[in-house]
Amino acid sequence: MGSARRMPAAVLAGLFAAYLLYVTLHAGGVEQTALFYIGIPGLIAVTVALTARPRTATGLIMVTITIGLAVAGPLLREGIVCLLMAAPLFYLVGLFIGLCVDYVHRRGTYLLVGPLILMVALEGAAGSVPRENEVTVSVPARGDVELALAEEPRFGPVRSRFLALGFPKPLSAAGTGLEVGDSRVVTFTPRRSLGIGAPLESRSMTLRVIRRGPGMVAFGVVSDTTLARWMELREAEFRWTPARLEVTIRYRRTFDPSWYFGPLQRHAVAAAATYLAGTFTS
């Protein structure tokens, strides 16, 4: 088979191999590990390189990953946030393998790429770095912070460009009080999956006061259908003085690899904490 004919076959083979791995990992409950986010693009890259044997593997690998990401939303009903967060990692893995394959073709030498990829991809499936995290932001206090926290919050527009990429936005909240046991139910914008004909999915978060003291209150997350697919939010703690409001959000990272999703989640949580602080000081 000529090189031109092998390329479409290589693309289809890469996508089919990725789909089989997706089904296997999903059935095994490890779809949030590095084995998923590094293993799938790695398998695509290796399959394409071995099947098509192009002069330069990198370009064809990038094209195949792009097609795979484009069809993942409609076929697998993934949301826009999941695809946006995963895409850079997929391209990075594909680029690395493609450049290694091209280097081998040019120099006639062999690199131990496979064991390196496998070692990195096992994070989460065979151990992981600590997952518990917290982020704290501090802003100037304006008005009566304690009174604002005790009332139903009024949410303003989200100004963070990162959160505006497709993260759920709070619409309204029900519940008042700062005594232990008082609760809030926050309604968010519905989840819009990229699946063909997929209905909108309602999203909400229930919080309950779990600690109360002078100048502080902590809300524990009782239930969450907003970010539960991406992280486990544990609690939001507020500490205030007449001059400052400090917001600490504690959460558990659920995605691997940590070196990629860790900074992304910390940035998102910091933006969310800043938004919360602004909600109760405006």
Question: What's the structural blueprint in terms of helices and strands?
Answer:
Elements: H1 3-27, H2 34-37, H3 39-52, H4 57-76, H5 80-107, H6 113-121, E1 132-140, H7 145-150, E2 170-174, E3 183-191, E4 201-213, E5 216-224, E6 231-240, E7 244-253, H8 258-279
Antiparallel strand pairs: 1-7, 2-3, 3-4, 4-5, 5-6, 6-7
Helix pairs in contact: 1-3, 1-4, 3-4, 3-5, 4-5
What does this structure look like?
The chain crosses the membrane at residues 7-28, 34-52, 59-77, 83-104, 111-129. Keywords: Membrane, Transmembrane, Transmembrane helix. By secondary structure, this protein is of the alpha+beta class. The protein has helices at 3-27, 34-37, 39-52, 57-76, 80-107, 113-121, 145-150, 258-279; strands at residues 132-140, 170-174, 183-191, 201-213, 216-224, 231-240, 244-253. It has two domains: 3-121; 132-279, Alpha-D-Glucose-1,6-Bisphosphate, Chain A, domain 4 (2-Layer Sandwich). A seven-stranded antiparallel beta sheet has the order 1-7-6-5-4-3-2, with helices on one face. α4 (57-76) packs antiparallel against α5. The longest helix is centred in the first third of the chain and has 28 residues, at 80-107.
Largest sheet: 7 strands, antiparallel
What structural class do helix, strand and pairing data support?
alpha+beta
Order of helices and strands: HHHHHHEHEEEEEEH
**Which stretches of 5+ consecutive residues score pLDDT under 50?**
none
**How does CATH name the architecture of the largest domain?**
2-Layer Sandwich
| Overall pLDDT level | 81
- N-to-C CA distance: 67 Å
The rounded Rg comes to 23 Å
CATH fold group of the largest domain: Alpha-D-Glucose-1,6-Bisphosphate, Chain A, domain 4
